[in-house]
Design a protein that fits this description.
Layout (H helix, E strand, L loop, with lengths): L2 E4 L2 E4 L3 H16 L5 E2 L16 H8 L3 H5 L8 H12 L7 E7 L1 H13 L5 E5 L5 H8 L3 E5 L10 H12 L4 E7 L12 H12 L4 E7 L9 H4 L13 E8 H4 L8 E7 L2 H17 L6 H11 L2 H31 L12 E5 L3 H10 L2 E2 L1 E2 L3 E5 L5 H15 L1
Parallel strand pairs: 3-12, 5-6, 5-7, 7-8, 8-9
Antiparallel strand pairs: 1-2, 4-10, 9-10, 11-14, 13-14
Helix pairs in contact: 2-13, 4-12, 5-6, 5-11, 7-8, 13-15
The structure holds pyridoxal-5'-phosphate.
The site of pyridoxal-5'-phosphate has 13 residues, from helix 5.
Amino acid sequence: MGFVKVNDRTIPKEDKVFAVSGRAKAAIAAKGKDQVVDATIGALLDDNGDLVVMTSVMEAIGTLKPADYAAYAPIAGVPEFKEAVQKALFADYSPKGHVAVCATPGGTGSLTHAMSNYTNVGDEILTHDWCWANYKGIADEHGRSIMTFRFFDEDGKFDSADLKLKLDELSAKRDQVLLILNTPAHNPTGYSLTLEDWDNVINIVNAASCKVVLFLDVAYIDFAGEPDEVRAFLPKLEGLGDHVLVLFGYSASKTLTAYGMRCGATVCLAKTEEEAEDFTKAVGYTARSTWSNCNRSAQVVMGKIYSDDALQAKVDEERRGYRDMLLERGRIFEKTLRDNGVKSVPFTAGFFITVPADDPAGICAKLEEQDIFCLALAKGIRVSVASISKEKCVRCAEAMAALLK
Ligand code: PLP
């Protein structure tokens, strides 16, 4: 693939995902989309392979006025948006603590917020070994690096023992550690921490000898299952000690299936008002000195949706249909794989499933010979069930199982 060196960063010449999805597009152009399984795309597509665009969201966009597009937004976001994000994130749960919100360009921006304000140059940021590849890129861009704990033990259970080991190791040399957990519907495995996993996380973080900033990347929360069930962990956060600050990375890209609107937020749930104020000042400063303020029109749309019960119900209902379509695809993929004697990495819900493999690149190359395009990761193959129909899930799982057995 090759790399270029710019400053002290090693930058791949070609983005891995764009490269394989380019080959999938070429195959579609040559053979037609029915013949090709393109399981590389990180966006929700319908069974015809077209991007899911929610009509209810588009109707809300249609009510915007020219100034909603043209005017600057405040750095932290328009007030209605900040309210909307809390409603979208917490739903029926009333957070205990001091909440502050700052708009970001998608969930990606909230990772920048967390890394640049809660770690120093040279620090390691702790997260699970299976993780969104961009964590490394964002850390690298800010002169930080990623340290990982093993996400799953030999029995396929959340490896809390390794989390403890790595957190203790980092806490012993730092005053403050940033721990990123991506749940529910983790990318790339589709795993959601169980309530028992959460009890373990809380105990481990509470026992840490330094301050811990617990960043919860909840980008996929609205596609992870029933809204109240996927938020059942929230009250558990009340058991965290005073040395723990909770941040959420929220992404409207997924919730509204509006990736290009670049709308998200960092939400802070602090124990004290002072800590929440410090958060607001710090992340606002980062925003002002990187992307400045965010897309105002997207914020106004969020504000409209979450301040109008009827409109919100319409959006929720429409999303529920797509969410169920996605959940069904995931179950079918996993079942087909299992029926053919192969297990995925533990999967609960979401856009992606990962299948462990000793030679992911080799298997992906063989799949491409059958016009099936997936992403080879270091220890497995990522399949975007978000972008393929049920029938293609079956075809992909059968082909993969035949090669892996
Ligand atoms: N977090 C995870 C795990 C993701 O997979 C993504 C996008 O793919 C994001 C955050 C950020 O999404 P966006 O910046 O598009 O809102």
